[in-house]
């Protein structure tokens, strides 16, 4: 059944409601700047609620969007404007409350507007309770939820992997030394964004539970942040010129993506799209089976599509030398930085 902008059933339609994401117009909302309803100068969820007529009031006078994608509104210290998540299952007070979110979803659904939210799987905030626990001791039950390694023989980083965020044009190691436990932790982005260890099944379960949390609250899909960074070489070997990068492992990533698909398939008409930045399409096609044969498996086809979405990392990459071409891994070693205090 198709529904119109006011949520009323309409006859016909060019596509099934189940594949709304194929033909629908999706509008990104950056909550911080969209509409401030509380008068503090920062946009918020109630502000979005006030503007739904602008998005789709059922007439040609509005934008007529089919779905909104909400950039992160989760609890966060905002080191990376919300892409450093400290609680995946709550709304940051800056943006409102879970009740505000529920009200927004209900109002959107009433107009036939789907709601897509951001999912940030590669890392958490360094203030996330999981990382605080992981960091507390080498024997912590959550130690292995993140990627910890001894410093290199020279006291520098464990390997030559670099953060995606250079500092004033200079490369920054993807490792930060933690004085308390004498090891370094991996962060593909800011030091305030420690990478989760997706090789750990407990991490996979915890993060897929996050998907279920929002699906149960009525969201229609996810924009998956930096999904290509989920996996990494378990042996933490250096990147080497001319070889596939080892700080982003395609196979482990695809296992996770297939798991996301299984979670979504337990619900009706849900979708996900990845922020994917891979410069080696031949390897991608060889691994996924997509491309010439058109035999994309349902487990991946809807979950890993868009090359370089307009997410935070793309924004921050612009103006900086983001990374090397495929197989052009960085080779320089630099001293580790100091762990940011919670
Ligand atoms: Ca506000
Ligand atoms: Ca990672």
Fold and architecture overview:
There is one protein chain. This protein is α/β, with parallel strands linked by helices. It has a domain at 17-124 and 197-317: Alpha-Beta Barrel (TIM Barrel), CATH 3.20.20.80. Helices cover 26% and strands 13% of the residues. The chain is built from 11 helices and 13 strands. It has helices at 20-23, 31-34, 45-50, 52-55, 98-110, 129-136, 201-216, 250-265, 281-288, 298-301, 312-317, and strands at 2-3, 9-10, 26-29, 67-70, 74-75, 87-91, 114-119, 148-149, 175-178, 183-186, 221-224, 271-274, 337-338. The strands form 4 sheets. The chain has a 5-stranded parallel sheet. Strands 8-10-9-13 form a 4-stranded mixed sheet, with no helix packed on it. Helix 7 (201-216) runs parallel beside helix 8. The structure holds calcium ion (CA) (2 copies). The site of one calcium ion (CA) has 5 residues, from loops.
The number of helical elements comes to 11
Stretches where pLDDT is under 50 for at least 5 consecutive residues are 1-15, 291-339
Rg result: 21 Å
Please tell me what the overall shape is: globular
Bound molecules: calcium ion
Strand content: 5-15%
**Average predicted local confidence, pLDDT:** 83
Name the structural class.
Answer: alpha/beta
CATH 2nd-level architecture of the domain at 17-124 and 197-317: Alpha-Beta Barrel
Strand order of the largest sheet: 3-4-7-11-12
Termini gap: 50 Å
| Helix residue percentage | 25-40%
What's the helix-strand series?
Answer: EEHEHHHEEEHEHEEEHEHEHHHE
Write down the CATH class of the domain at 17-124 and 197-317.
Alpha Beta
């Amino acid at each position: 059944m198709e529904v119109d902008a006011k949520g009323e059933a309409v006859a016909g339609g060019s596509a099934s409601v189940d594949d709304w994401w194929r033909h629908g117009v999706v509008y990104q909302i950056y909550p911080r700047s969209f509409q401030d309803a509380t008068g503090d100068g920062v946009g918020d969820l109630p502000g979005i609620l006030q503007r739904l007529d602008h998005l789709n009031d059922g007439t040609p006078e509005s934008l007529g969007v089919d779905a909104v994608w909400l950039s992160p509104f989760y609890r966060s210290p905002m080191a990376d404007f919300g892409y450093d998540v400290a609680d995946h299952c709550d709304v940051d007070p800056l943006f409102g409350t879970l009740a505000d979110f529920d009200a927004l979803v209900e109002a959107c659904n009433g107009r036939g507007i789907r709601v897509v939210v951001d999912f940030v799987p590669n890392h958490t905030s360094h203030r996330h309770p999981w990382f605080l626990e992981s960091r507390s001791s080498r024997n912590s039950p959550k130690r292995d939820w993140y990627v910890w390694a001894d410093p290199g023989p020279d006291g520098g980083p464990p390997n030559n992997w670099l953060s995606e965020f250079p500092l004033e044009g200079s490369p920054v190691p993807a490792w930060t030394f933690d004085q308390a436990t004498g090891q370094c932790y991996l962060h593909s982005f800011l030091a305030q964004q420690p990478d989760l260890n997706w090789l750990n099944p407990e991490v996979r379960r915890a993060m897929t539970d996050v998907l279920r949390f929002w699906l149960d609250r009525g969201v229609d899909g996810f924009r998956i942040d930096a999904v290509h960074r989920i996996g990494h070489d378990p042996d933490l070997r250096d990147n080497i010129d001319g070889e596939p990068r080892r700080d982003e492992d395609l196979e482990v990533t695809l296992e996770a993506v297939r798991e996301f698909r299984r979670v979504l398939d337990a619900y009706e008409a849900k979708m996900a799209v990845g922020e994917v930045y891979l410069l080696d399409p031949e390897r991608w096609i060889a691994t996924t089976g997509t491309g010439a044969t058109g035999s994309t498996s349902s487990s991946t086809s809807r979950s890993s599509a868009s090359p370089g979405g307009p997410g935070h990392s793309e924004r921050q990459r612009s103006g900086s030398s983001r990374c090397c071409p495929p197989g052009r891994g960085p080779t320089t070693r630099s001293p580790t930085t100091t762990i940011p205090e919670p």
